Amino acid sequence: MTRILVVDDDLAIREMVAMALEKSGYRVERATGFGPALEAIRERQPDLIVSDIYMPGGTGLDLLKEVQELADPPPLILMTAKGSIETAALAMKDGVFDYLAKPFDLDIMLERVRAALAEKAPPSPREENGPESMIVGSHPTIVEVYKATSRVAPMKVPVLVFGETGTGKELVARALHRFGGHAEGPFIPVHCGAIPDTLIESELFGHRRGAFTDAKGDRRGALTQANGGTVFLDEIGEISPVFQVKLLRFLEDGLVQPLGAEKSELVEVRVVVATHRDLKAMVASGSFRQDLYYRLAGYEIWIPPLRDRISDLPALVEHFQQRFNLDLGLPEGGSPSGEVLAVLAAHPWPGNVRELGHVIRRVLIETGSLDDVAAVQRILGIVAHPEGVGSTAVLSSANFTEPFVPLDEIERLYILSVLTHTKGNKTDAARILGIERKTLARKLRPTAGSVTKDRDGGEP
Question: Average pLDDT, stretch 280-307?
């Protein structure tokens, strides 16, 4: 009978996993931490190990290293409630079979157990633990980002990172650099959307003195600066069709020719690009070259918006609280109350994690802690979203004729405020609100006085 060792200091998790495995016909042994797990392995090597990462006496990564020293190491599946891109990358490099975020579906766990028993993972190079991750969360969608990043980081392929504004695209790009083959080289970020079309070529390729009116000296472009490392092109969807051709040529031959130069220079650069736009739709509309898209999208990583992983909000709040307490010289504060977390969880977060960090810092500056519900509500209303829409600011500007109004009226006023901001574009409004366009149309229909065409061609 197949023997599986389950290691977790949490009795409830340990027994839940063990009983599910036993019910599926496996023989299960249990260990409460690193030391007991080593004893069980030395006494009789199991066919598979399912282990927590953080536990007494050592981590699951430590256990993985010990297991890899065995002549015939059994596959190991790691579980964690504190996922990070570092632990995922290090675990996969050391040969872990899979990485599950708690809480997980037992059926998924059993499927991964069957897959691990059918195919043993080969050992991989080891790496020292790195600093604390800037990407925080254990929701299954963000764990998939960890796994995708660690999977493709060592490969010499361009990577397209896409997601809404503020989700952490540059952090993923930095992780790809850190765990890739150019980690000792430079990481050069370029925000394509912030550079005028007339300057983007000079910014990336550089120029020689006299190449144009203001070229008073030679300048190395970002691609040359990134030689031996990684260049990160943020908002790649903003570049003009003319420059798309020049970027495509570089991706094909790796040659950089500064403006005004007679000769080209060969550079070795890992290219990572990011966008909040739908590049496939842009290809279909003819505004983005199809051949460039396929060159850039050697592999794609999607980062979920904060609203889709709201269970990570407490961990993110704790992360920002610790970071800003240190930056601002504030004493360590207690954890935010359940009421504060509830207020934060109810916010739509159109600016995603970046907006959350901005709000937490503002609250800490003004109050020194995260236990004042009224202050959090007030700051959520006055801090401008990236899209220019404030949640409670909408309500404070409404002219109610009664002391209290129905909830659907508040919702309607908020939606109308967003529509005013988007100048009637319902597609943009639905994106800001985080709902489908047909849901927006349904919410507007009962109060609409007339049917009018909006900017993107639809009807309410």
Answer: 93
